[in-house]
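Final report, results section. Input specification for complex C-07:
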Amino acid sequence: MQRLTAAAASVAGLGSTTVRIDALSNHLPPLFAGAAEYYVRYRSEYPAPIFTELAGRLGLDGRQSALDLGCGPGMATFGLTEHVASVTAVDPDREMLAAGHALAVEKGVDGIDWREGSSEDLAGLGVGPFDLALMAASFHWMDRPATLAALDKLINPGGAVVIITGSMSGLARDTPNRPAWAEAAYTTRERWAPSRRRWRGDTSDNQSTYTLQRGENRAVLEASAFASVDSYELHWQRTHTVDELIGLLMTVPDLTPTALGDRIDGFRTELREALLAAQPGEHFVEPIWTQVLIGRRPTD
Ligand SMILES: C[S@@+](CC[C@H](N)C(=O)[O-])C[C@H]1O[C@@H](n2cnc3c(N)ncnc32)[C@H](O)[C@@H]1O
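Structure output:
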């Protein structure tokens, strides 16, 4: 795995985007209900070097078509638009799509087709074919082998699947140099959301939604049509106030405003006390370990 140096993300471009909400019967659990507004405020886009490196490895020259599956409000979508001609941004959550569309209009970013849908209805969406499919912090919510099989039908010969993990480190115990407040956040989450949501297709007793999945994704790719796997990673960081950290934690399923309901104030108070006990002060530096896996079809 190759390591990159960090730099700020940038987004540019002028124009408009489209959003299309089809009458799909959405049978997925509403994991992120009520989270979109918090997501836009408290998460951040991935740093630009992630996409520069990706463009170099895949030979992206602004002519390709891409799918961003599980796009949320576009945390990876906007970085991708810098290197391809068009992005179809798919998510089952309408609030996420609306937030992404609003951000695109605000930024003046062109070439994004926001679509309601999921890994489970890709074939019926009438989208594609694509030169690449990106899944950023979303693959772990899907039935991973079934998703890769569906993508095999949508991705052009010579195309690739890209899996990005690591958009926040407070809840990922395997992030190197994790500060004490991150463990306090983790244990507070355990108390308020003890029964973790499972990803689609998971039948194991494994209760960790995220951390263990990081290691498994390579094996899942290697067992798919996209078995030729390449990878790199980026260590970067961002600084939060305690209120921003609380908002960040509320972007996670089971801790969203909708999931907490009238428990919001209790959660916020307890988390604030736990964070400040672990680290007094107003500046919380979050180390982030973002990993990128690229899967291509073997050539021989
Ligand atoms: C943690 S957010 C990631 C958003 C964005 N890609 C990012 O990197 O910040 C996960 C997103 O995956 C979406 N999602 C969940 N299950 C999905 C599925 N089966 N197919 C497609 N998207 C899904 C959720 O609605 C949510 O917007």
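The mean pLDDT is 85. Residues 2-169+207-237+286-296 form a domain with the Rossmann fold fold (CATH 3.40.50.150). This concludes the modelling results for the funded period.
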